[in-house]
From TrEMBL:
The lineage of its organism: Bacteria, Pseudomonadati, Planctomycetota, Planctomycetia, Pirellulales. The keyword rRNA-binding does not apply. This is HTH-type transcriptional activator Btr. The keyword Ribonucleoprotein does not apply. Residues 139-237 form the HTH araC/xylS-type domain. It comes from Rubripirellula tenax. Keywords: DNA-binding, Transcription, Transcription regulation. SMART domains: HTH_ARAC. Coiled coil: none annotated. GO terms for molecular function: DNA-binding transcription factor activity; sequence-specific DNA binding. Pfam families: HTH_18 (PF12833), PAS_4 (PF08448). Gene3D superfamilies: Homeodomain-like, PAS domain.
Amino acid sequence: MQQTIRSIDIHLLERLFQSLPDTAFFIKDFQGRYLVVNESLRARHGLEHSGDAIGKRPSDICPGDFGRVPAEQDTKVLQTGCPLVDHLEMHWYLPQEPVWCLTTKLPIVADDGSIAGLIGFSRDVRTPLENHEIPKKFAEILDLFEDNLIEYGTASSLAQQSGISLQRLARLTKRLFGLSPTQFISKTRIAVASRLLFETNRAVSEIALTSGFYDQSAFTRAFRTATGVTPTAYRLQAKSIADQSK
């Protein structure tokens, strides 16, 4: 099995992804242990050397559910052979910055059909501050969006308020953010909620409404889908990680 992974030009791939600071690249063996990581992955986990990750699983180098969730993803890909493609999720970038990523994990299949490991990357989703190609009205709505998540909470309303068609909206969000309109709205809602959970002591039910969700149950389901944890667990874990990094 390991020979199949070695047959890949690992060094070439490693060199390629070293030049992408917003992308965490990795190759793992059939047990989900890191064989190769790039500099970006090392930095976001606060490791001194890239070699500190080799032979370990995500749960070994990242505390709590931020390590558990990717490890469980690896197990599913390795057991089923089904790839994970453009999965929107939140990662923890030490010392205290949660970032959104689009994660792709592909199984490495040996000649005999068995799963020898996996290869993948997590690309940071970051909204550009300036872009001359953004229509003026759309840019104005984006400035208001985080403070009006209920009013602009659907793709249709976002398109209407921006004075553009749904098709144009889809092209813009995909080109600028790498996300569909639905992904973009979901990402923004959860990002606002996670910031409020971390920075304030406001009740979860209040944060749910502020973030554009109808009720706390809908908020909890969406938050858990995106991050792998409940809002309350995230609050405790994020503040704990921040305290440890001080």
